[in-house]
Batch of 2 targets.
Target 1
Amino acid sequence: EGLGMQSHVIRDRRVAPPAVPREDAPPTVVAFEHVTKAFTETVKGLDDVTLDVRRGEITVLLGLSGSGKSTFLRHVNGLHLPTSGQITCLGKRIDTASERELRRVRCWRPR
């Protein structure tokens, strides 16, 4: 099964130095709310994932091959859309973002 089953999200609560995060970035830079990606009725790449990544936070995705790590990242940048749930990245809802807004999300980098 997907990310909710075999992988673990390990969160390091140390905050990066103040110069690293952009001040114009929202406090929560990535938010998944009950996100599921079903490839078929029995195969899920993501299973009810809820996660917030805050500005300056270091987050690691760790899991076995086929556990949903790449699927998760493809949802962050809008290359895949969820079967259900909502994803927000840098204040933009990924499912309703225009191609231009998605390019900004994909190319955003700290100053």
Note: The helical segments are 3-6, 69-76, 99-107.
Target 2
Amino acid sequence: SQDFAGAMGSQHITCRIWVFHPGDQMAYHRHQEQEEVYHLISGGPQEMLIEGEVVVVEDQDWLRIPKDTTRRIQNSSDRDATWLIIGAPPGTGITDGIRIDPETGQEIPRT
């Protein structure tokens, strides 16, 4: 991923471009403090798993995901997908994200 907000010295927002190759997926997770906006730049249609439901996302779609809402991008297609992901407030960094087991809904402890 490319961290644009960090490169510009932002302290109150995160902004990254992510490329998900076919078969890639992010960890199913939620945030304690950070809400996020997801924008599919290209590669659609793609899927997000949100609160256990698959949501189909088309190129140029925007989704706002509140904190405490479980989510993950999952590329089940045969093409790369490019996403812009914006989050605020930044929270406590990597520990703001809590990984969730998609089968049980239980938190996965950090090791």
Note: DSSP finds one helix and ten strands in the chain.
